[in-house]
Design goal:
Rossmann fold; 3 domains; two-stranded antiparallel sheet; 20 helices; 11 strands; 51% helix; disordered N terminus; disordered C terminus
């Protein structure tokens, strides 16, 4: 099949929804003269300049609310007249989707149209990259369509994308197929649930129908809360005992119940009909085993049994889901603005993080050293911010400061790496957001211990501490183990340079990496990252990337403040690490 034919089909499919549902407010009173001026000239330069101006007006929040959509749409119309304007056209649609939720799908479809044009113009290796960009646009469109209840439209978009991926020989074909398969499975699950509910509601006394509906909620839907509503005396004792306990949530489970619930969830794996359901059940079991090991500090046969069970669950999950499926590519802003002496490691660090996002398709990184990127409208395009090489008082504008605070507090994420944790010392709210205020740096070279070896953010260390050649930062209030969840800390007992010293924190400790919540958002901080070797070391880089994924909302982790957790057996520093 000819890729041009596929492109034609996609363009036709996109054309219908692009019409506005009602006449848009006119731009003529404010911008009519400028629009007529650029329309009178054949060259595209002034069209592109006006498009960029319209985008800037929207980003700065200077547009009247009723003109947000018309300005974005006109900016798109002007920018697509020349390939050099395509980035501006995409930016305009990102702003439109963020500012006017009812137009999000339209905006995504218009972005897809730009990606189609880029593909048609590309040659050589650039054509493969352009194909992947087009497929990413369609995958994002399909996700938005499903979120608004248009599962049929989402499936149609993905099937068209799959046809194109095949003809274009894109490596992204597997990701498109996975997304389509998952969508079809969810649609089938919804139909099965509706049938089971109808059967039971027609005869509430049917014990078999009740049991099957409960199993479906619990195993296939991974919804113990709904399953618990169906518990009655007709069910077996384990179901009556464990389903209500599971419905109360992981954090409510007492120590001994956690081990039992882990075993019980493992027993349900054989009842799961799909790989996705099996994985969900195993993750539930994993969570209970990990909580038990957190609460049960005593080294005894019960702890050993849970550790062995957890290892088996991890192995089963790895075999079942060898590679996580990324259904939505997150957008990450990497800020590298250095207002103090820059770090030689920054280019290596940026390259490592950007390439990791491209390889895994977990996030699409935008690198900037422009403080204007912290404007409210600009930040709205991103799911998270990574401060990488950013140092000194890099953010002094009050509006931008507030925009960043609101961005994280409102449910987005922040990853602060190395010198970013020592930045903005004249801005107290920055320290509150990070969870610590920088004091000083100590000589390089110290041992690092895993404070929470079970955290997914520490998975790359395989349970072993290590030696760091970085400088060690010390922190003061607002840092407190009562407020943040420590992942890594300096092992003073195994660090000769720290002998006889005490950290500047209230507890006298040396935190290296931690996480916590800020409002509805997620924050990951690490002092690691001074030397280039951090970003070529798979374990340390893996830790940082996991922190970024946590900040983006793709990796769940326990954020319970460390002071509120029961102590765990200490781990020795691995020889040679």
């Amino acid at each position: 099949m000819n890729p041009r034919w596929v492109l034609t089909v996609l363009l036709v499919a996109l054309a219908a929804p692009l019409r506005a549902e009602e006449p848009a407010p006119s731009l003529d009173p404010l911008y009519g003269d400028e629009l007529r001026r650029v329309a009178a000239t054949p060259a595209p330069n002034d069209d592109l300049a006006l498009a960029e101006r319209f985008v800037l007006i929207v980003r700065r929040g200077e547009a009247p609310p009723k003109l947000l959509a018309p300005l974005c749409e006109k900016a798109y119309e002007l920018a697509v007249k020349d390939p050099s304007g395509y980035p501006t056209a995409v930016a305009a649609m990102r702003l439109l989707g963020a500012a006017v939720p009812s137009k999000q799908i339209q905006a995504l479809q218009w972005i897809a149209a730009v990606r189609q044009r880029q593909y048609a113009l590309a040659r050589g290796e650039e054509k493969l990259k352009a194909a992947d960009g087009l497929l990413d646009a369609h995958r994002e469109t399909a996700q938005a369509q499903e979120a608004t209840g248009d599962a049929d439209g989402a499936a149609a978009t993905l099937r068209q994308a799959l046809t194109f991926a095949t003809t274009a020989r894109s490596d992204a074909k597997a990701a498109v197929q996975a997304q389509l398969s998952d969508l079809v499975a969810r649609r089938q699950t919804a139909k099965q649930l509706a049938a089971l509910k109808a059967k039971w509601e027609a005869n509430p006394g049917d014990a078999a129908a009740r049991k099957e509906l409960l199993r479906f909620y619990l195993v296939e839907m991974d919804d113990p809360v709904e399953a618990a509503k169906l518990v009655d005396e007709s069910l077996d004792p384990p179901t009556r005992k464990y389903v209500p306990a599971a419905a109360r949530g992981l954090d409510a489970a007492p120590e001994l119940a956690c081990a039992e619930l882990g075993d019980w969830y493992r027993s349900l794996v054989s009842q799961a009909a799909t790989p996705a359901a099996k994985a969900a059940v195993l993750r539930r079991a994993k969570g209970y085993y990990e909580r038990f090991l957190t609460l049960h500090a005593t080294a005894d046969p019960q702890r050993d049994a849970s550790e062995q069970a957890l290892q088996k669950v991890d192995a089963d999950l790895a075999a079942l889901v060898p590679e996580a499926r990324v259904l939505k590519t997150r957008r990450l802003l990497i800020m590298t603005l250095a207002k103090r002496a820059g770090h030689q490691s920054t280019p290596v660090a940026v390259k490592a993080v950007v390439e990791a996002g491209q390889k895994t398709r977990a996030f699409e990184a935008t690198v900037s050293e422009d403080p204007a990127a912290f404007g409210k409208a600009s930040l709205s395009k991103f799911d998270g911010v990574c401060l990488l090489g950013a140092s000194g008082e890099f953010l002094t504008d009050n509006a931008s400061r507030q925009a960043l605070l609101d961005f994280v507090r409102g449910g987005r994420g922040l990853a602060a790496i190395h010198c970013a944790t020592s930045a903005n010392t004249l801005w107290p709210a920055y320290a509150e957001m990070l969870g610590a205020a920088f004091v000083r740096s100590l000589p390089r070279g110290y041992a690092v211990k895993l404070v929470d070896a079970a955290s997914p953010l520490n998975a790359s260390f395989s349970g072993k501490g290590f030696e760091s050649g970085d400088e060690l930062y010390t922190y003061k209030e607002p840092y407190s183990r009562e407020l943040v969840h420590i992942l890594l800390s300096a092992d003073a007992a195994n660090s000769p340079a720290l002998a006889g010293r005490r950290g500047d924190s209230p507890a006298g400790d040396y935190p290296v990496s931690w996480i916590h919540t800020f409002g509805q958002g997620r924050v990951f901080c690490t002092a690691l990252g001074h030397a280039e070797s951090n970003f070529t070391n798979p374990a340390i880089l893996g830790h940082m990337l996991a922190g970024i994924r946590f900040a983006l909302g793709d990796l769940r982790a326990d954020t319970t403040p460390s002071a509120k957790l029961a102590p765990r057996p200490s781990r020795k520093l691995a020889p040679g690490q």
